[in-house]
Amino acid sequence: MTVMMPQRHRAAAKKPMWIIVLLSMVCVVLIGTYVFPPRRYSKCYLFASSVCTPFKDWLPSMGQRERTDEEIISSVVIRDILSMPMPVSKNPKIALMFLTPGSLPFESLWEKFLQGHEGRYSIYVHASREKPVHTSSLFAGRDIHSDAVVWGLISMIDAEKRLLANALEDVDNQFFVLLSDSCVPLHSFDYVYNYLMGTNISFIDCFKDPGPHGTGRYSIEMFPEIDERDFRKGAQWFAVTRRHALMILADSLYYKKFKLYCKPAEGRNCIADEHYLPTLFNMVDPGGISNWSVTHVDWSEGKWHPRSYSAADVTYDLLKNITAIDENFHVTSDEKKLVMQKPCLWNGSKRPCYLFARKFNPEALDNLLKLFTSYTSV
Length: 378
Description:
Blueprint: H1 17-35, H2 69-83, E1 93-100, H3 107-114, E2 121-127, H4 154-168, E3 173-180, E4 184-185, H5 189-197, E5 202-205, E6 239-241, H6 242-250, H7 253-261, H8 276-284, E7 289-291, E8 295-296, H9 316-324, E9 327-331, E10 339-343, E11 345-346, E12 349-350, E13 356-357, H10 365-375
Parallel strand pairs: 1-2, 1-3, 5-7, 8-13
Antiparallel strand pairs: 3-6, 4-13, 9-10, 11-12
Helix pairs in contact: 2-6, 3-10, 4-6
């Protein structure tokens, strides 16, 4: 006799409710984080042309090494400067900070640019090699203490900090523009004033260059506080808000590292002024900068120095062409020669990139004076 085993009935498979609940909770957290971000990141710069602080900064530290006291102090000070409200000035001014070896050949052009706008600007002159002889009364008495400056070395940053410190003493100075002796204005004062005061981002050139003129210049092990991926390059000529000017003065950690590494005696190919500020701002406030400089320079000749403009070069067409440029581009210095081209966005709208230009030779002054009214008119 064959015994038939009773048929076993499988119980209905239970739905994995715990997985559904877990996924639902994760979705709720992600949506909540997106809509209500952490307080530190809830207020991006209103007119920032770049993105907000990268998502990587929301993540907890991987704890690869313990931070030093100096790193903690520096991060706390910079964090508080970036979050604190700035005093509101009833008479906001632009601080024009000239970094020059000696006299300024274009003082009469700047005087024409500034005429009729007294009380809306301040002038500071850092002459590092010889005492300047001023031809304009606007520049007389505006010299500040200076030390020897070697172009490209850390002494350039020392001079920039000295200029910022003097300019910050005036509470009405709200925007700080670094200019050289070969710089000239491209627009009327009203245009420049409204361009700068109408936004709260800083105009700092910043891009990633893996080549020998960028990250390749550095022995990264000298900078344990800086991830190699954060290194940036850019022009040294900046225009920054008061908040960012304070932040530059407050930073001691990264400035100290560059100063230790970029010693002339070491023989390193270290151009500190092209890397310090781009790297610093890329790390602490990338959403607060434009990633281009408002000072135009022509590197198209592919030489160690940019193109210089002689008197014969200075024509109406040249100047109007420069003022009309509304896209900025960078080229990496590696074998790929990668070209990165982006529109210049001002408060989200495409606008001309440049307010100033360099390098103009002193003999170009007469032509610039003759053409000033025509090339600066809208």
